[in-house]
Amino acid sequence: MTTNPVHTAGNAVPPLDTDLAGALDDLAGIHAGIDLIRDGIRHLALDRHTPDTTQTLLATLAGSAGADVITAIGHLVARLANADHNPALRNLPLDTQKTTRLHGEQAAHHLLDTRLHQPASEASATITGT
Fold first, then answer.
1. What's the CA gap between 117 and 130, in Å, rounded?
2. d(CA 59, CA 98)
């Protein structure tokens, strides 16, 4: 029986698909922090993974509500939209500050919704059979 080793030229990690590459390109040059996120996403997409690391990454990116990247982004959105935490907003009219904070809190609420995390959680669990 001939087996094909995983690490062969015929089993190379493919280049980024146009959707992911385009999304990353659209985020270029906004802020150094966003560039670091782009680099991390690109690295994760193009790195060779095992089933175990894939399972862990799926859970860590979006499949473990409360302890994943999507949760952290939700909290960051709420923080950036809050004049108490973002001095750049403090000179805006008070009603604008309040509305901005409300929208940030709503965005975080949606990003923290467990239904958003469920598909990635299920994909992660499927790999390990749990």
1. 16
2. 34
> H or E segment at 30?
none
Asked whether the predicted pLDDT for residue 41 surpasses 50, the reply is yes
Structure-token pair, residue 38: 């782009």
Number of H helices, E strands in the chain: 6, 0
Sign of the torsion formed by the C-alpha atoms of 91, 92, 95 and 101: negative
**Predicted model pTM:** 0.83
Tokens standing for 7?
Answer: 């690490």
CB 35 within 8 A of CB 24: no
What integer pLDDT is reported at residue 2 of this predicted model? Answer: 46
Residue 4: half-sphere exposure toward Cβ, Cα within 13 Å:
6
Using CA atoms, how far apart are residues 22 and 61, in angstroms rounded to an integer? Answer: 19
Q: Kindly state the average pLDDT of the residues 62-83.
A: 92
> Which residues, at least 6 apart from 8, have a Cβ–Cβ distance to it below 8 Å?
none
Under DSSP, the state recorded for 108 is: H
Virtual CA dihedral for 118, 122, 123, 129, nearest 10 degrees? 170
